[in-house]
Amino acid sequence: MGQKDKKKEKKKPVTKYTESGIPLKRLYTPDDLKDLDYERDLGGPGEYPFTRGIHPSMYTERLWTVRQYAGFGSSEDANKRYKFLIDQGQSGLNVAMDLPTQLGYDSDSSHAQGEVGRVGVAIDTLDDMENIFKGIPLGKISAAFTINAPASIILAMYTVVAEKQGVPRDQIRGTVQNDILKEYIARGTFIFPPTESIRLACDIIEYCQKESPRFNAISISGHMNCAGAYSVQTAAYMCLNALVYLDELVKRGISAEKIASVLAFMTTMKANFFENIATVRALRRKWAKIMKEDYGIDNKRAQTLRIMLPADTGNLIIKQPLNNITRTTLRALSAVLAGAQAIAIPCYDEAFAIPNEESSRISLMIHQIIAHETGIPDVADPLGGSYYVETLTNQCEEKMNEIIDDVRSRGGMLKLIEKGEIQRQMTSQLYQYQKSIQEGKTIVMGLNKYALKDEDISKYEGELHEYDNTIMDRQIEKLKKVKAGRDNEKTEKALKELEDAFRGSENMMHYMIEAVKSYASIGEIVGTLEKITGGRFRAPTGV
Amino acid sequence: MSTDKPVRVLVAKPGLDGHDVGARAVATAFRNAGMEVIYTGLHQTPEQIVQAAVQEDISLIGLSILSGAHVPICKKLMELLEAEGIDDAVVFIGGVIPYRDRDELKKIGVAAVFDQNSNFEEMVEFLKKNAK
Questions:
Q1: Any chain A CB within 8 A of the CB of B117?
Q2: pLDDT bracket for residue B69 (50, 70, 90)
Q3: Which of A339, A363, A430, B110 suits A88 as a labelling partner, its CA being 20 to 30 A distant?
Q4: CB–CB of A344/A308 below 8 Å?
Q5: What is the widest separation between alpha-carbon atoms in chain A?
Q6: What average pLDDT does the segment A157-173 reach?
C-alpha cells in the first residue's frame, strides 16, 4: 500500500451507531430518500400513516400537555403540590402514588413500613382520593395515574370523585397506566399472575370504551427503555404488548376499532437525540399499519397512536447534578420534535430523591421556554423530510419488524414473558450497557469524563425533598377513622360481591366502584382478590 | 480464605421498589467473575432475606434500594441478623443512597455503599476480600 493510500486508510471515519445498533453515515442526501413516497410513507400530520404527527396543526394550535409527575405524602400534601403546579403552568396532572398503593397494600400493612407517602401519595380509601382533588375541577383538568396492578380500584375512585363534583362518567378525562405486561419485564409493580392481571386490565379497557370513552384506559408503556432495552426494541415490545390486550378484548367480542380508540401510549426519551425522534415516528407509522392492515381499521382515531413522552430518568447523574437540567432539556426537545401529545420532564435532583419545589419549577420552565421562547411550536413537524431523520425512521421501522417477527416466531410476547426470556435478554443488555459506561465507552459527563476529583455533593443533598416520617402514623390514624365511620355491613357486602364476580368472568369495574363507594380500602379489595389467586405472584427475574 | 470454592453472594431487593436493573447488573457481573450468585427477585421482606441467607449459608448480602427507604430497611435487617445470632454477615448496599445517610448506615453495620460511581471490579474485589 502506498503512502497516500495509507493516509486515506487512517482518515476513514469510524462508523457510528445509534444505541439500537443502526449504522450511521456521516451525511445523508436526497439519494437516501429516492424511494420515499410522501403519501405512502409520510402523509401530512394527521394523515395516515401519521409519521409526521397525529394532528394537522400539531402545536400551532395546541401545545403538548405539560404533565409533570408529582405527588408525595398525604392526600392533603399532594393536593397542595398539584395546586402549586397548576398555578405554575402544569396543564394536566400526573399522579405519583406511593409503593404500598401501587402494590395494593394499605398504609397499616407491615409491608408498607418505611414506604408510606415516600415516592408518591398514599391512597388507602376513597377519602384520600377526595382530598387529593379538593378544589381541582375534574371537568377542566385531566389526571393521569401511574398505576398498574390496582388500576381498576384507582379508576373506580376517580370516577366516583368526579361524579361527586358533577362530572359524569362519559366526560371524565385522564389515564390509568394499566399496562401490567411491562410491569413483569421492566417495572415490578405486579401483584397477580399474568392471566388474572390481563383480565383486570382488559376489564378496564372494555368498561372505558363503553362508559368513559374520553378516558385513556391504558397507556402502553416503554419502561423497557430503562431496564436494558434500546429504543427500537422497546417500541417493538410496546406493539406486541398492546396486541396481547387487543386480541384478548377482540375475543370478548368487542370491535378492534372501539378498543383501539381508548388506547394511549407512552415511552421515554433516552440520550440519543435523533434516535428518540425516529423511533417515535416509526412507532406511529407501524401502529397505524398494524391497525389498518392486520385489523382492518379505517377509523382515523383508532389508527392514531397518541403518545406521552417523558424524558427518561435512568440517566440522571449524582455527580455535577445541575447538568441533569441540560440532559432533561435535550430529551424534552426530542419529545417535542417527535410530536408528543404530553411531556413530563424529571427534575435534576431526582438522581437523589423525589424533587423539591425549586427543581420542580425549573423543569416546568423547560416546557415553557421551549413552548414560548424558541418558536419551535410555530410549524408542524419541522423535521419532516430531513434526509437523515426519514432514513433513520425507515431503519427503525425495519428493526422493529425484525424484533416483532422474532418474538412471534418464538411463541409470542406473553409466552416469552412467562418464560422469562424477555427478562433474560434485557438483563444481558443492561449488564453490557453498565459495563460500557464503566469502561468509558459510553460517555457520561461528570461521571466518566470531566469528573471532578473529591466532588462535594452535600450542597445538593442539603436541599432535597425531605421525607415526612410522621406520615405513616397519620395515615394509619386516618384509615382507622374511615373504617370506623363507614357502614361496615355495606363494605362487607360489596367485598363479597366483588369476590364472587372475580371467580366468574364478569367485568370487575362495577364491583370495584361499589366497593370504593363503601369505603373499602385498597388492601381489603386486593386481599379479597388474593383469596382467589392464592396469594401474590413471583415473576421470573431474568437472572 | 479458601481459594477453591467459589465466593457465594446473595443479591436482594428488599421492600416494594421494583427497579432492579442495578441488582440484575451486579448479579450478572458477580456471576461472570466466577461467583455463585443467588438473586432473590423483587418484593422481599427483611425476614425473607435473612431466611434466604440462613438457608443458603451465605454471609455476603447485597441490598439494592432505590426508593429512599434504605435506613429503616437496613436497621430492620441488621436487627434480624443479630436475632438469628449471625455475627459474620457482610452487608453491602447499592442504589440511590444519598451521601448524607452513609455514616448512619455504617453505624448500623453496613460494610459498604456502592453507587453510580462504582464499577464491577471494585465490587468483586470487595466481595473476594470479605468472603469466608
A1: yes
A2: confident
A3: A339
A4: yes
A5: 94
A6: 96
Q: Tell me the C-alpha distance between A67 and B7, whole Å.
A: 47
As a three-state string, the secondary structure of chain B is CCCCCCCEEEEECECCCCCCHHHHHHHHHHHHCCCEEEECCCCECHHHHHHHHHHHCCCEEEEEECCCCHHHHHHHHHHHHHHCCCCCCEEEEEECCCHHHHHHHHHHCCCEEECCCCCHHHHHHHHHHHCC
**Any A CB within 8 A of B9 CB:** no
Q: Which structural domain range is residue B35 located in?
A: 8-130
Cβ A211 vs Cβ A169: under 8 Å = yes
A449: nearest CA in chain B? Answer: B117
How many beta-carbon pairs under 8 angstroms link A with B?
Answer: 107
pLDDT of A4 strictly over 70: no
| pTM, 2 dp | 0.94
CB contact under 8 A, B120 and A438: yes
Asked, for residue B2, whether it belongs to a domain, the answer is: no
**Residue contact A188–B37, C-beta within 8 A:** no
Q: Do B18 and A118 touch (CB under 8 A)?
A: no
Average pLDDT over residues B24-43: 96
pLDDT tens sequence across A39-98: 999 999 999 999 999 999 999 999 999 998 888 899 999 999 999 988 888 888 999 999
For residue A307, list its beta bridge partners: A265
B34 in A contact zone (CB under 8 Å): no
* Under 8 Å between Cβ of A148 and A111: no
- Is B91 within the bounds of a domain? yes
Of the pLDDT bands very low, low, confident and very high (cuts 50, 70, 90), residue B4 is: low
Q: Which residues of A touch B119 (CB under 8 A)?
A: 438
pLDDT for A8 equals: 59
Is the residue at B3 inside a domain?
Answer: no
- Cβ of B28 within 8 Å of Cβ of A314? The answer is no
Question: Hey, where are the domains in chain A?
Answer: 24-461, 482-533
Smallest Cα distance from A438 to chain B, Å: 6
pLDDT (average), residues A150-165: 97
- Which CATH architecture best describes the domain A24-461? Alpha-Beta Barrel (3.20)
pLDDT digits (tens, 9 = 90+) for A263-280: 999 999 999 999 999 999
B46 touches chain A (CB under 8 A): no
- Give chain A positions within 8 Å (CB) of B99: 457-458, 461
Give the chain B residue whose CA is nearest to the CA of A119. Answer: B67
Q: For A471-523, write each residue's pLDDT tens digit.
A: 999 999 999 999 999 999 999 999 999 999 999 999 999 999 999 999 999 99
B76 to chain A: which residues are within 8 Å by CB? 113
Structural contact between residues A180 and A201, judged by C-beta atoms closer than 8 angstroms: yes
B76 at the A interface (CB within 8 A)? yes
Residue of B nearest to A451 (CA): B117
Model pLDDT for residues A92-135, shown as the tens digit of each residue? 899 999 999 999 999 999 999 889 999 999 999 999 999 999 99
Q: What does the pLDDT look like over A195-231, one tens digit per residue?
A: 999 999 999 999 999 999 999 999 999 999 999 999 9
Residues of B in contact with A467 (CB under 8 A): 68
- The amino acid that residue B25 corresponds to is A
Nearest CB to B27 within list A112, A314, A543: A543
Number of domains in chain B: 1
pLDDT over 80 (residue A540): yes
Q: Which CATH number do you get for residue B83?
A: 3.40.50.280
Predicted ipTM of the assembly: 0.92
**DSSP character for A466?**
P
